[in-house]
Structures are given as structure tokens and as C-alpha cells.
Amino acid sequence: MPSTECEEEFEILQSIYKEIVIEPDKPNGESLVSMLLFPATGDDTELRYVKLTLEFLLGRDYPESLPKIIFRNPRGLSEDQLEILLQDLVKSSQEMIGSPMLFQLIDTVKDFLTTNNRPASECPICLMSFTDFDVFYTPSCYHHFHSRCLGIHLQNIVDTYNETNEVKLSSEAIEKLCPVCRLGLDPAIDIDKLKAAPSPSPSEELIGEVEVPSEWVENRDKLKELYDKQKKQGGIINMKYVT
Predict the structure, then answer these.
(1) Mean pLDDT lowest for which of 134-148, 164-178, 218-232?
(2) CA 152/CA 202 separation, integer angstroms
(3) Which of 135, 176, 219, 229 is deepest in the core (most CB within 10 A)?
(4) Would you put residue 142 in left (φ > 0), alpha (ψ -120 to 50) or beta?
(5) Judging by DSSP bridges, how do beta strands 145-146 and 136-137 pair with one another?
(6) CB neighbours of 140 closer than 8 A, spacing ≥ 6?
(7) Domains in the chain, start-ordered, CATH in brackets?
(8) Phi-psi region of 65 (alpha: psi -120 to 50; beta: other; left: phi over 0)
(9) Burial, 63: exposed, middle or buried (Cβ in 10 Å; 0-12, 13-18, 19+)?
(10) Cβ atoms of residues 236 and 156 within 8 Å
(11) CB neighbourhood size of 151 (10 A)
(12) What is the mean pLDDT of the chain?
């Protein structure tokens, strides 16, 4: 059973955060507190590019003992960022030991997500990092893509389907999936709008360093032959959409 002080803290948290989940009867008298957190973007949920589920495992003598802090299903954050955040939380919890601390720790995570509200990963399609000048798309699974890259990928899916099937379908009628996890994308996703987005911007360290390998030039005919074979067998490569 949690202490009276702990129960009072739970009541306060539940009055502030309607979405918080508290399980006070875990094994060994522990309590589990969890909450899905997003950056602060007001009412515009489309501007949320990162998220994580924050969990606290509290011993029966909390707050006299430190909570165990766990990150579940982080999206859009790098391993380095998560390590920095965890270190900040541990340091803060050590400074507040003996006092209720969960509200302050939750607030620290929300501030961190707001400050770092930009994907730290690479676009899975072009493998280029996201820059401040890029336009990108975030599906519900939070696997981020450059808008143009995703638009070209989805257009290739539609074109390949209609090239290999007698019954032609509109782009709206063809199922569109996340290229990473295969979760269904919004059926109303506008492929033309995605394709109209600017091309990805190379990061500063790559500018001036891009060079076509000589072996690619030497094997151009072989690559062309491979491309023709893939296209004939139903591959999704389509040169008219490659930039």
C-alpha cells in the first residue's frame, strides 16, 4: 500500500492530468504511474513530432526512496537525447528525495519534448537527416518522413498496382501503409500535396561532399539492366519520380 503522503500526491496528479494511469497495488507493495507525453503545441496536434510514455515505479517507502524512471515507446528522439533526459530526471529526483516529486519530473519531460520537438532520426526513405528547412509528414505511428519522399513512395505504390492489375483503382482506393511498421496511413492522405513539397535539404556537413562513385559510372549499363528487370517484375522503382 502506498503511504498517505503518496496517496495525496496521486490525487493531485489525477486532478491535473486526466490521462495519467496509476496502479497502486503492484508486487512488493510498489506503485506504477504512467503517462503518454507530447510537446506543448496548443490545440494543433499536427505539430507534435515527438512523444514518449513516462513511467515511474515507486517503492512502498517513496518519497523517501527514489522512483525508477522508465521510457516506453519513444518516437522522434535519439538515444543521446533520451540519455540526457534520463540523467536530468535522476539528478532532479535526487535533489527532491523525501518530498513529492512526480509533478516536477513530468513537467521536466514535457519541457524537454517541447524544446526538442523535431525528429532526431533520419527519413527512412532517403536516409537523410531532417533539417530546419525540411517539410515532413508524421503519421500516427510517429515514423517521420520527408513529405516529398513519402509522396513519391506512395505514388510508386499506386502506379505499380495499376500497372500489374487489370482493374485500375484510384489512389484513394489503394491501401497505403507506413513503409516502416506497415500501419495504415490516413486514407485521405493527399499524395499530390506530399509530392509538391520541397526536396530534402542536405545537412551542412554533406554540402559539397556529394560525389558519384566512379564504379557507379563504370557500371551504368549494368545498373540500367537491373532497373529494367526490377520494373518488369513489379518493383516499385519509377524513374520519373526520382529527384
Answers:
(1) 218-232
(2) 18
(3) 176
(4) left
(5) antiparallel
(6) 183, 186
(7) 4-115 (3.10.110.10), 136-241 (no CATH)
(8) beta
(9) buried
(10) yes
(11) 22
(12) 85
Query: Positive or negative CA dihedral for 212, 216, 221, 223?
Result: negative
Quick one: cell of 155? Answer: 505514388
Alpha carbon of residue 47 to chain centroid? 12
Residue for grid cell 540526457: 84
More confident residue, 125 or 241: 125
* Cα–Cα distance for residue pair 67/65, rounded to 1 Å: 7
> 19-58, pLDDT tens digit by residue?
999 998 888 889 999 999 999 988 888 788 899 999 999 9
d(CA 113, CA 121): 15
Residue from 195, 38, 208 nearest 125 by CA? 195
Nearest alpha-carbon partner for 28 in 67, 71, 61 = 61
Give, as one character, the DSSP assignment of residue 202.
P
For 165, the grid coordinates are: 492489375
Q: Taking 80 as the threshold, does the pLDDT of residue 204 lie above it?
A: no
In the chain, % of residues over pLDDT 90: 52
